[in-house]
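Record type: monomer structure entry
Structure origin: computed from sequence
Chain ID: A
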Amino acid sequence: MVEVVAALIWDKDKFMICQRPASKARALLWEFVGGKAESGETKEQALVRECREELAVTVSVGEVFMDVVHAYPDITVHLTLFNATIAEGVPQKLEHNDIQWITASEIDNFDFCPADTEILERLKQECSK
């Protein structure tokens, strides 16, 4: 199983989603910014590194929003999604095809990676309260 970290980055009532590049597995599907934790890294350190590499921003990592285990045909991931805020920088598309800020009510307008399904359902429920 591969340890994967991701950031739920909010700006008021919108959160950031990123579109995977056409050249990678699950091409052009939407996801939360993040990636695989490297050997010797804490999950928080991995998330800070991934956000710097993919978006050129420094994030402040908060509490875990949700943990999900998902088996794709080619890989099984343990995804830990952290609440996070941008401490420094403006997001840039260094690796992603696109970046969007969306509300929970707009989730169904995007095709997400299957591992994010449970997370998105929880976001829709919590934001409709």
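Annotation 1: The chain is about 20% helix and 40% strand.
Annotation 2: The chain has a mean pLDDT of 95.
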